[in-house]
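PT: before anyone asks, these are the final sequences, not the draft ones from last week. 636 residues across everything. Please model them as a single complex and drop the result in this thread when it's through.
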Amino acid sequence: MEKPYVFGLDMGGTNSVLGIVDARGHVLARTSIRTQQYPKINDYIDALYAEAEKIAEPLGGFEMFRGFGAGVPNGNYYTGVIQGAMNLPWGPYVPFAELITKKFGLPCKITNDANAAAMGEMTYGAAKGMKDFIMITLGTGVGSGIVIDGKVVYGHDGFAGELGHTMVAYGDDARPCNCGKKGCLEAYCSATGVARTAKEIVTKSKKKTVLRNLDVDNITSKDVFDAAEAGDEVAKEIFDFTGTILGRKLSDFVEFSAPEAIILFGGLTKSGHWILDPVVKALNENVLPIWRDKVKVMFSDLKEADAAVLGGSALAWE
Amino acid sequence: MEKPYVFGLDMGGTNSVLGIVDARGHVLARTSIRTQQYPKINDYIDALYAEAEKIAEPLGGFEMFRGFGAGVPNGNYYTGVIQGAMNLPWGPYVPFAELITKKFGLPCKITNDANAAAMGEMTYGAAKGMKDFIMITLGTGVGSGIVIDGKVVYGHDGFAGELGHTMVAYGDDARPCNCGKKGCLEAYCSATGVARTAKEIVTKSKKKTVLRNLDVDNITSKDVFDAAEAGDEVAKEIFDFTGTILGRKLSDFVEFSAPEAIILFGGLTKSGHWILDPVVKALNENVLPIWRDKVKVMFSDLKEADAAVLGGSALAWE
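LR: through. Structure below.
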């Protein structure tokens, strides 16, 4: 009998969520541990193993499992190593896949969060059956996972797909990005970028907007969405500004790899058509005629609560 | 015995050059026909066949050949069809690979010129042994061939790798490109783009430059090179302007696919360090720290006269 289950791990800086997933993408059980609670990686692995046993037992135990897949910050797919992850407590070099395999007796694959999201989308979600697509995650940052010919692109060193750090502005006026550069896509088109745009417009213009009633340092993309829904023109302008920058950049990506679809995921997609419409418009205005109105731009259809675990788990079927 | 030779065809709008190539990338014989002389594709194929027989005969005839590869305008690798090529006389749909196979009795693969150049570079040239690199051709236009994990990227529809039409400027002030868009990389960083920049500076500024002595509508990138070599400051400024735009864009491409190297080819590379230095500088200023000073930027080492034939021929070894 084919073993019916895999483990999928979503390791975040705060929580690590472990799920049991079947081939159709159902999360049959889940558990979690606090990532930072274990200053030594071996203690983390032991704690994870103890949790895994608990949830696997009712389903027949570890012999029912085909493998273990994980989306982890700075996870290198080629080497299985977590390398230089600033938000994790275990130092610059953690041979994570090897440690999991030793403890669990299961093959283990890891990759970074955005690549895992792309794998999840291809295995269970909106990109099922697609061989060429680009996943863009629009959350605190902008991440990306690129799939070409059915495979995630890792590049020469395993770190390909940093589309959030492609450039949309240059020079002193460009916005600083968390990566140390100025002018990255992420600085404009993440949920955080939308909040920065809102703050800029509220403080630098005299335009009438309900956003002015909020604490300018704590405006969120959700606030901008609510304002747009209520008919606020400045809120719409913020989404147009953001979507135009993102759509222009997507046209570059289409000219690179000619994907069938671009799939958007993450907090900002909750803004729905407010963000999608200007993205699609700018993409089609800037892409070569052969791709105009041909590349699908769509939202992920994975449940947000499951998506990261599903992404990790998708690696385990390979 | 392994068959030792392949045919490589470089089909241009004017000439079609056919060469016989061995596995080490030596062009053992070559011939050519005028592309436009044959209003019917079958007459073109017959003429090519007659020429091929002549050069193949001294080498043992067609039984010594493993296959036929061709770089052709708008050649679709997946289908073997030349589709919508404006500069060829045979209409919108030419099943070229099929016709060659029927006539020559050899397997035939085609692709467009820039992808063929990338294949040539990987099979015989500067990218030998590399699995991840990007080829940029800087001639009348800007073309590109992207190799990921040892394979040329074709994308969902076969047309991936149009990096010459990624955007470097937006809006009314952006330069019109031949593709109908405004602001494409090609409009700035092709040999023609350099000439346009020269014309702009000469006509719009009062700066002292030897370029002012030339007919402003006929300044070439070679003229700008000669001026730079002679110490002309405006000529250097033109290369800095061009190289900065190109290098910035290369940083986006590195963040997409994390290549080991970027290989530059075509007329503009004759400008040597004048163009290379600002490209490398702008790339490293704009790329994420993990790739800073790590991605090789190099010129093709294939002889220009052979490169296109070698590129076509490389497909035939697959």
